[in-house]
Amino acid sequence: MATVRGVLARLTRELGIDLGTANTLVYLRGEGIVVREPSVIAHRTDRRGVLAVGDEAKRMIGRTPAEIVATRPLRHGVIADFEITASMLSYFIRRGLTGRSSRRPRVIVGVPHGVTEVEKRAVLDATLHAGAREAYLIEQPLAAAIGAGAPISDPVGSMIVDIGGGTTEVATIALGGIVTARSIRVAGDEMDEAIIQYVRRAYNLLIGERTAEEIKIAIGSAYPEHEEQTIKARGRDLVSGLPRTLVLTSGEIRDAIAQPVQTILETVRTTLERTPPELAADIMERGVLLTGGGSLLRGLATLLADHLEIPVRPTRDPLSDVVVGTGKALEQMETLRRVLVTSKEL
């Protein structure tokens, strides 16, 4: 009997998933990150078949015929389409377990802080529907802090700012839990939309989401740089209806995204103001941890440090902190059980 239990234990697999608005990452316990792909799925409009998921589906955005839709089934970190999200999750879980196990895995999924009970239930149900044996939720700022190596169990305050695609999570953490936190639906996607609207307003040129994201990554910044950069942007002229190319500068893009960046700054300040004095003193000394894909915006750490007048430190791997945190949570299930959410609790 003991031998059978040992074999079953070795066959059992555990996955940590960062189910993000922009990207999904999967962490396989004992092996590390095994999947890193866009949270995009392409399917027929009659929903009779999934055509592509991840990188392949993202390449289809804006290029599909009428009978095919390439879409992101999560908006602002929560499920906008249950059936399609479950299909996407099923694909990523299979990818994470390819050639490794035939047993249904135990899964921990990171979710934004402050999501409703209904939204939590939707994620848990989608995860179970996608093939998980057991499903748990952990709040993304806590997972990011764990993944970044912050001493979350100590009686000292740590502040994490996690800027993703759909949400920005700001949290003060101490003694293994979140003390104060705010989650806003302003992040990388809003910066992309701000670029689209600026180009439309200033040049009567319509560009797509992918183009806006490429512009942001290439020349976007939150703080003035020593050298102005430029990029060519292609789109459709709203007057003539014909394709057109123009040159945009990094100064223009900085101005275009100023509003969402300012909203993030004010959210961090508000969270810090609501932090108990003793923990605020710890943060003043230790600084703020900056993570998430949106944290890669040039000059953002400098702008935050100037705005808050405290040190701000980008983490070593901001794109992976949340999923690494879910993986570490799998190894510390008993210690962290009080902060995990299961379907039985909802």
Which tags fit this structure?
Nucleotidyltransferase, domain 5, 13 helices, 346 residues, single chain, 39% helix
Notes on the structure:
- This protein is α+β, with helices and mostly antiparallel strands.
- It folds into three domains: 2-142 and 322-345, Nucleotidyltransferase, domain 5 (2-Layer Sandwich); 155-186 and 259-317, Nucleotidyltransferase, domain 5 (2-Layer Sandwich); 188-257, Actin, Chain A, domain 4 (Alpha-Beta Complex).
- It is 39% helix and 27% strand.
- The chain has 13 helices and 19 strands.
- The protein has helices spanning 2-11, 55-58, 82-97, 117-129, 140-147, 188-203, 209-219, 250-256, 258-273, 277-286, 300-308, 321-331, 333-336, and strands at residues 14-19, 23-28, 32-38, 41-44, 50-53, 68-71, 74-75, 78-79, 106-111, 134-139, 158-163, 168-174, 177-184, 205-206, 230-237, 243-249, 288-291, 312-314, 341-342.
- Strands 3-2-1-9-10-19 form a six-stranded mixed β-sheet, sandwiched between helices. The chain has a five-stranded mixed β-sheet with strand order 13-12-11-17-18, sandwiched between helices.
- Strand 4 (41-44) and strand 5 (50-53) form a beta hairpin.
- Helix 6 crosses helix 7.
- The longest helix is centred in the N-terminal third of the chain and has 16 residues, at 82-97.
